[in-house]
């Protein structure tokens, strides 16, 4: 073996060691997500026929603040063709400069409802090198941030009664201040508005029944 060949082998060996010490590359991480997703999808196909959501989109919560739209697009392409990715903030805006509260979520729109349904299997995965495990849901009310808000509201308000199977259908009303806390959220306000359109006077959100008290 000549000296040049030996030096080349030593250089390649050092390069492999350096790459291993540096950890997986973004491409490696993305490939690992794809492998895991395909396994989950195969199991889902065996369990039953593919379902379809009513709309071709999913909402993504528990986002790393550093996650970008480009990273999300690459991540969700494992499920199928992505039409658009939008990161929104809890103020209801897409402009981070006017963000008023502490969380963001993403809206991922796909080419069809079947792809959107498959994308739900990406819940619990990590985007890139982030340590956050994302939550992928089909309705905004199921975002972990919204659920946390509802849980906090129920915990803080003693006169909100969580009904049991044997409870009577006479829930106590929320106080005015608590009503405002719920209704300043567009997602919650829209959900309650849909219930009101159906003529309901007793509302339900995340298993909690209540009536709304006005000022």
Task: Characterize this entry briefly.
With 215 residues, this protein is an alpha+beta fold. The protein has helices at residues 3-22, 26-47, 69-76, 113-119, 144-156, 176-183, 186-197, and strands spanning 57-61, 82-89, 104-110, 135-137, 203-205, 208-210.
Largest sheet: 4 strands, antiparallel
Oligomer: single chain
Number of strands: 6
Strand content of the residues, in percent? 5-15%
End-to-end Cα distance, whole Å, is 90 Å
SS-derived structural category = alpha+beta
| Low-confidence region ranges | 158-168
List the helices and strands and how they pair.
Elements: H1 3-22, H2 26-47, E1 57-61, H3 69-76, E2 82-89, E3 104-110, H4 113-119, E4 135-137, H5 144-156, H6 176-183, H7 186-197, E5 203-205, E6 208-210
Antiparallel strand pairs: 1-3, 1-4, 2-3, 5-6
């Amino acid at each position: 073996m000549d000296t040049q060949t030996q030096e080349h082998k030593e250089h390649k060996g050092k390069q492999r060691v350096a790459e291993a010490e540096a950890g997986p590359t973004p491409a490696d991480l993305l490939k690992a997500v794809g492998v895991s997703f395909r396994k989950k999808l195969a199991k889902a196909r065996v369990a039953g026929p593919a379902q379809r959501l009513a709309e071709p989109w999913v909402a993504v919560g528990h986002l790393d603040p550093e996650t970008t739209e480009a990273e999300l697009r690459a991540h969700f392409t494992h499920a199928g063709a992505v039409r658009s990715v939008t990161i929104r903030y809890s103020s209801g805006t897409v402009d981070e400069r006017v963000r008023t509260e502490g969380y963001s979520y993403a809206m991922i729109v796909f080419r069809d409802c079947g792809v959107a349904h498959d994308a739900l299997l990406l819940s619990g995965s990590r985007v890139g090198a982030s340590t956050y495990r994302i939550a992928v849901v089909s309705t905004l009310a199921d975002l972990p941030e919204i659920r946390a808000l509802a849980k906090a509201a129920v915990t803080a308000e003693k006169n909100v009664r969580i009904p049991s199977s044997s409870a009577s259908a006479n829930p106590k009303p929320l106080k005015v201040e608590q009503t405002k806390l719920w209704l300043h959220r567009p997602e919650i306000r829209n959900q309650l508005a849909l219930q009101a359109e159906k003529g309901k006077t007793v509302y339900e959100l995340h298993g909690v029944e209540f009536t709304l008290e006005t000022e």
